[in-house]
Amino acid sequence: MEISKIVELLNGQLVVHGSNKTVEIETVCSTDLMSDVLRFATKGTLLVTALNQAQVIRTAEIADIPAVIMVMGKAIEKELTELAEKKDITLISTNLPTFTTCGILYAEGLIGCLEGQ
Amino acid sequence: MNVTDIIEGCYQLMEGDFTNAGVASSELKSILTKLGVPLDIVRRTAIAAFEAEMNVIIHGVAGTMHYAISETEVRITFTDMGPGIENIELAMKEGYSTAPDWVREMGWGAGMGLPNIKKNTDEMKIDSAVGEGTTLEITIKLRKDAPC
Protein backbone atom coordinates (compact mmCIF):
# COMPACT_ATOMS: atom_id res chain seq x y z
CA MET A 1 0.00 0.00 0.00
CA GLU A 2 1.33 3.43 -0.90
CA ILE A 3 1.89 6.12 1.74
CA SER A 4 -0.63 8.46 0.06
CA LYS A 5 -3.34 5.77 0.35
CA ILE A 6 -2.58 5.29 4.08
CA VAL A 7 -2.83 9.04 4.69
CA GLU A 8 -6.16 9.14 2.84
CA LEU A 9 -7.61 6.15 4.73
CA LEU A 10 -6.71 7.61 8.13
CA ASN A 11 -7.77 11.13 7.22
CA GLY A 12 -4.23 11.94 8.25
CA GLN A 13 -1.62 14.55 7.60
CA LEU A 14 1.68 13.87 5.90
CA VAL A 15 4.10 15.67 8.24
CA VAL A 16 7.33 14.43 6.64
CA HIS A 17 7.55 12.59 3.36
CA GLY A 18 10.67 10.48 3.00
CA SER A 19 12.54 10.61 -0.30
CA ASN A 20 11.48 7.10 -1.30
CA LYS A 21 8.11 8.01 -2.84
CA THR A 22 7.48 4.51 -4.12
CA VAL A 23 7.79 2.75 -0.75
CA GLU A 24 5.17 -0.01 -0.53
CA ILE A 25 3.90 -0.85 2.95
CA GLU A 26 2.75 -4.44 3.50
CA THR A 27 2.99 -4.95 7.27
CA VAL A 28 2.32 -2.98 10.46
CA CYS A 29 3.77 -2.97 13.99
CA SER A 30 1.81 -1.17 16.70
CA THR A 31 3.43 -0.47 20.07
CA ASP A 32 4.58 2.35 22.33
CA LEU A 33 7.56 0.38 23.65
CA MET A 34 10.71 0.95 21.66
CA SER A 35 12.38 -2.30 22.72
CA ASP A 36 9.36 -4.16 21.36
CA VAL A 37 9.95 -2.41 18.04
CA LEU A 38 13.60 -3.50 18.12
CA ARG A 39 12.61 -7.03 19.13
CA PHE A 40 9.59 -7.74 16.93
CA ALA A 41 9.33 -5.26 14.07
CA THR A 42 10.57 -6.49 10.74
CA LYS A 43 12.42 -4.50 8.11
CA GLY A 44 10.15 -2.28 6.01
CA THR A 45 7.20 -2.40 8.38
CA LEU A 46 4.99 0.60 9.26
CA LEU A 47 5.07 1.69 12.92
CA VAL A 48 1.82 2.86 14.58
CA THR A 49 2.48 4.55 17.94
CA ALA A 50 1.06 7.05 20.42
CA LEU A 51 4.54 7.93 21.64
CA ASN A 52 5.54 11.37 20.39
CA GLN A 53 9.21 11.29 21.36
CA ALA A 54 12.20 11.74 19.06
CA GLN A 55 13.28 8.28 20.24
CA VAL A 56 10.62 6.87 17.93
CA ILE A 57 12.49 8.21 14.90
CA ARG A 58 15.84 6.95 16.20
CA THR A 59 14.31 3.52 16.71
CA ALA A 60 12.73 3.55 13.25
CA GLU A 61 16.09 4.39 11.71
CA ILE A 62 17.92 1.62 13.57
CA ALA A 63 15.23 -0.98 12.75
CA ASP A 64 14.89 -0.06 9.04
CA ILE A 65 11.33 1.22 9.44
CA PRO A 66 10.48 3.62 6.58
CA ALA A 67 7.31 5.21 8.00
CA VAL A 68 5.72 6.09 11.35
CA ILE A 69 2.11 7.01 12.18
CA MET A 70 1.49 9.11 15.28
CA VAL A 71 -2.05 8.50 16.49
CA MET A 72 -4.56 10.44 18.60
CA GLY A 73 -3.42 13.77 17.17
CA LYS A 74 -0.44 13.86 19.51
CA ALA A 75 1.53 17.09 19.29
CA ILE A 76 4.60 16.64 17.13
CA GLU A 77 7.50 18.79 18.29
CA LYS A 78 9.82 20.49 15.81
CA GLU A 79 12.75 18.38 17.08
CA LEU A 80 10.91 15.21 16.08
CA THR A 81 10.00 16.54 12.63
CA GLU A 82 13.56 17.71 11.97
CA LEU A 83 14.99 14.34 12.97
CA ALA A 84 12.51 12.52 10.68
CA GLU A 85 13.59 14.78 7.79
CA LYS A 86 17.26 14.19 8.53
CA LYS A 87 16.82 10.42 8.81
CA ASP A 88 14.50 10.21 5.82
CA ILE A 89 11.61 8.65 7.77
CA THR A 90 8.07 9.34 6.58
CA LEU A 91 5.93 10.75 9.39
CA ILE A 92 2.13 10.72 9.35
CA SER A 93 -0.21 12.21 11.95
CA THR A 94 -3.81 11.12 12.49
CA ASN A 95 -6.45 12.09 15.05
CA LEU A 96 -7.70 8.49 15.15
CA PRO A 97 -6.80 6.30 18.14
CA THR A 98 -4.52 3.25 17.85
CA PHE A 99 -7.32 0.66 17.70
CA THR A 100 -9.20 2.41 14.91
CA THR A 101 -6.03 3.14 12.96
CA CYS A 102 -4.97 -0.52 13.02
CA GLY A 103 -8.52 -1.68 12.27
CA ILE A 104 -8.78 0.44 9.14
CA LEU A 105 -5.36 -0.67 7.85
CA TYR A 106 -6.11 -4.33 8.59
CA ALA A 107 -9.47 -4.14 6.80
CA GLU A 108 -7.64 -2.75 3.76
CA GLY A 109 -5.27 -5.72 3.62
CA LEU A 110 -2.23 -4.77 5.70
CA ILE A 111 -1.15 -7.44 8.18
CA GLY A 112 0.86 -7.57 11.42
CA CYS A 113 4.63 -7.69 10.90
CA LEU A 114 4.92 -11.05 12.68
CA GLU A 115 2.21 -12.56 10.45
CA GLY A 116 4.16 -11.30 7.45
CA GLN A 117 7.23 -13.41 8.25
CA MET B 1 33.60 -5.67 2.08
CA ASN B 2 37.33 -5.09 2.35
CA VAL B 3 38.72 -4.06 5.72
CA THR B 4 42.46 -4.60 5.92
CA ASP B 5 43.02 -2.51 9.05
CA ILE B 6 40.88 -2.30 12.14
CA ILE B 7 38.50 0.67 12.10
CA GLU B 8 37.90 2.06 15.56
CA GLY B 9 35.76 4.75 17.13
CA CYS B 10 34.61 5.90 20.55
CA TYR B 11 31.65 7.90 21.85
CA GLN B 12 30.91 9.40 25.26
CA LEU B 13 27.49 8.62 26.72
CA MET B 14 25.75 10.53 29.53
CA GLU B 15 22.85 9.34 31.67
CA GLY B 16 19.63 11.19 30.87
CA ASP B 17 20.92 12.60 27.58
CA PHE B 18 17.97 11.53 25.47
CA THR B 19 18.70 14.24 22.90
CA ASN B 20 21.79 12.37 21.71
CA ALA B 21 20.57 8.88 22.56
CA GLY B 22 21.07 6.70 19.51
CA VAL B 23 23.56 8.96 17.73
CA ALA B 24 26.49 6.58 18.33
CA SER B 25 24.58 3.51 17.11
CA SER B 26 23.23 5.44 14.13
CA GLU B 27 26.77 6.45 13.09
CA LEU B 28 28.04 2.89 13.51
CA LYS B 29 25.17 1.65 11.35
CA SER B 30 26.11 4.17 8.67
CA ILE B 31 29.80 3.14 8.76
CA LEU B 32 28.97 -0.58 8.43
CA THR B 33 26.57 0.13 5.57
CA LYS B 34 29.23 2.13 3.71
CA LEU B 35 31.73 -0.71 4.22
CA GLY B 36 29.32 -2.99 2.37
CA VAL B 37 28.50 -5.28 5.31
CA PRO B 38 25.39 -7.40 4.50
CA LEU B 39 22.31 -5.39 5.51
CA ASP B 40 20.86 -8.05 7.83
CA ILE B 41 24.13 -8.05 9.82
CA VAL B 42 24.14 -4.22 9.87
CA ARG B 43 20.60 -4.24 11.25
CA ARG B 44 21.42 -6.80 13.98
CA THR B 45 24.50 -4.81 15.01
CA ALA B 46 22.60 -1.51 15.08
CA ILE B 47 19.78 -2.96 17.21
CA ALA B 48 22.18 -4.50 19.74
CA ALA B 49 24.28 -1.32 19.91
CA PHE B 50 21.21 0.90 20.32
CA GLU B 51 19.83 -1.20 23.18
CA ALA B 52 23.20 -1.15 24.94
CA GLU B 53 23.58 2.59 24.32
CA MET B 54 20.13 3.16 25.85
CA ASN B 55 21.10 1.07 28.89
CA VAL B 56 24.00 3.43 29.60
CA ILE B 57 21.81 6.50 29.03
CA ILE B 58 19.08 5.12 31.32
CA HIS B 59 21.23 3.64 34.10
CA GLY B 60 24.92 4.21 33.55
CA VAL B 61 25.67 7.71 34.96
CA ALA B 62 28.43 8.20 32.36
CA GLY B 63 30.19 5.85 30.01
CA THR B 64 31.65 5.12 26.63
CA MET B 65 30.86 3.06 23.56
CA HIS B 66 33.93 1.82 21.70
CA TYR B 67 33.78 -0.13 18.44
CA ALA B 68 36.42 -2.00 16.48
CA ILE B 69 35.61 -3.30 13.01
CA SER B 70 37.91 -5.92 11.50
CA GLU B 71 37.57 -7.98 8.37
CA THR B 72 35.76 -10.72 10.26
CA GLU B 73 33.83 -9.06 13.09
CA VAL B 74 32.64 -5.94 14.84
CA ARG B 75 33.31 -5.76 18.56
CA ILE B 76 31.56 -3.10 20.63
CA THR B 77 32.42 -2.38 24.25
CA PHE B 78 30.21 -0.33 26.55
CA THR B 79 31.72 0.81 29.83
CA ASP B 80 29.81 2.80 32.40
CA MET B 81 30.15 4.16 35.93
CA GLY B 82 26.57 3.27 36.77
CA PRO B 83 25.10 1.48 39.71
CA GLY B 84 26.08 -1.95 38.38
CA ILE B 85 23.76 -4.92 37.88
CA GLU B 86 22.87 -6.76 41.09
CA ASN B 87 21.62 -9.93 39.46
CA ILE B 88 22.72 -10.48 35.86
CA GLU B 89 20.65 -13.66 35.47
CA LEU B 90 17.51 -11.74 36.44
CA ALA B 91 18.43 -8.80 34.18
CA MET B 92 18.66 -11.23 31.24
CA LYS B 93 15.00 -12.24 31.70
CA GLU B 94 12.53 -10.67 29.27
CA GLY B 95 10.31 -8.19 31.09
CA TYR B 96 12.53 -7.66 34.14
CA SER B 97 13.31 -3.97 34.54
CA THR B 98 14.59 -1.57 37.18
CA ALA B 99 13.96 1.51 35.02
CA PRO B 100 12.11 4.42 36.67
CA ASP B 101 8.68 5.58 35.48
CA TRP B 102 9.96 8.62 33.56
CA VAL B 103 12.04 6.29 31.40
CA ARG B 104 9.00 4.11 30.71
CA GLU B 105 7.07 7.21 29.67
CA MET B 106 9.69 7.74 26.98
CA GLY B 107 9.06 4.29 25.55
CA TRP B 108 11.95 2.44 27.23
CA GLY B 109 12.43 0.31 30.33
CA ALA B 110 10.34 -2.66 29.19
CA GLY B 111 12.95 -5.15 30.35
CA MET B 112 13.87 -6.25 26.82
CA GLY B 113 17.28 -4.60 26.49
CA LEU B 114 19.74 -7.35 27.45
CA PRO B 115 17.63 -10.16 25.89
CA ASN B 116 17.44 -8.14 22.66
CA ILE B 117 21.22 -7.65 22.70
CA LYS B 118 21.81 -11.38 23.21
CA LYS B 119 19.42 -12.27 20.39
CA ASN B 120 21.20 -10.03 17.88
CA THR B 121 24.84 -10.81 18.69
CA ASP B 122 27.16 -13.80 18.31
CA GLU B 123 28.94 -13.21 21.62
CA MET B 124 28.00 -11.21 24.70
CA LYS B 125 30.00 -10.73 27.91
CA ILE B 126 28.88 -8.73 30.94
CA ASP B 127 31.14 -7.81 33.82
CA SER B 128 29.39 -5.80 36.51
CA ALA B 129 30.08 -4.72 40.09
CA VAL B 130 27.45 -2.99 42.22
CA GLY B 131 28.53 0.56 43.02
CA GLU B 132 31.31 0.48 40.43
CA GLY B 133 29.83 0.01 36.99
CA THR B 134 29.29 -2.36 34.11
CA THR B 135 31.28 -3.43 31.07
CA LEU B 136 29.40 -5.07 28.23
CA GLU B 137 31.27 -6.50 25.27
CA ILE B 138 29.38 -7.72 22.22
CA THR B 139 30.68 -9.30 19.04
CA ILE B 140 28.95 -9.73 15.71
CA LYS B 141 30.55 -11.82 13.00
CA LEU B 142 30.63 -10.05 9.64
CA ARG B 143 30.92 -13.22 7.59
CA LYS B 144 29.02 -16.41 8.01
CA ASP B 145 32.23 -18.47 7.80
CA ALA B 146 34.20 -16.30 10.25
CA PRO B 147 35.76 -18.17 13.14
CA CYS B 148 34.52 -17.34 16.63
- The coarse overall form of chain B would be globular
Strand order of the largest sheet of chain B: 1-2-3-5-4
Largest sheet of chain B: 5 strands, antiparallel
Strand content of chain A: 15-25%
Going by CATH, the architecture of chain B would be: 2-Layer Sandwich
**What count of structural domains of chain A?**
1
The Cα radius of gyration of chain A reads 12 Å
By CATH, the superfamily of chain B comes out as Histidine kinase-like ATPase, C-terminal domain
Percent of residues in beta strands of chain B: 25-35%
Mean pLDDT of chain A: 94
Poorly predicted runs of chain A are none
Oligomer: heterodimer
CATH class of chain B, named Alpha Beta
Look at the helices and sheets of chain A and give the structural class.
alpha/beta
Count of discrete structural domains of chain B: 1
Describe the strand arrangement of the main beta sheet of chain A, using strand numbers: 1-5-4-3-2-6
Order of helices and strands of chain A: HEEHEHEHEHE
Which helices and strands occur, and which strands form pairs?
The complex is a heterodimer of chains A (117) and B (148).
Chain A: H1 3-9, E1 13-16, E2 27-30, H2 34-40, E3 46-49, H3 54-62, E4 67-70, H4 78-86, E5 90-93, H5 98-107, E6 111-112
Parallel strand pairs in A: 2-3, 2-6, 3-4, 4-5
Antiparallel strand pairs in A: 1-5
Chain B: E1 7-14, H1 23-34, H2 39-59, E2 62-69, E3 73-80, H3 88-91, H4 101-105, H5 113-120, E4 123-129, E5 133-141
Antiparallel strand pairs in B: 1-2, 2-3, 3-5, 4-5
Helix pairs in contact in B: 1-2, 2-5
Give an overview of the whole structure.
The complex is a heterodimer of chains A (117) and B (148). Chain A is 36% helix and 19% strand. With 117 residues, chain A is an alpha/beta fold. Chain A has one domain: Udp-n-acetylmuramoylalanyl-d-glutamate--2,6- Diaminopimelate Ligase, Chain: A, domain 1. Chain A has a six-stranded mixed β-sheet, sandwiched between helices. In chain A, strand 2 (27-30), helix 2 and strand 3 (46-49) form a beta-alpha-beta unit. In chain A, helix 3 (54-62) runs parallel beside helix 4. With 148 residues, chain B is of the alpha+beta class. Chain B has one domain: Histidine kinase-like ATPase, C-terminal domain (Heat Shock Protein 90, 2-Layer Sandwich), CATH 3.30.565.10. Chain B has a five-stranded antiparallel β-sheet with strand order 1-2-3-5-4, covered by helices on one side. The longest helix of chain B has 21 residues, at 39-59. The two termini of chain B are 19 Å apart.
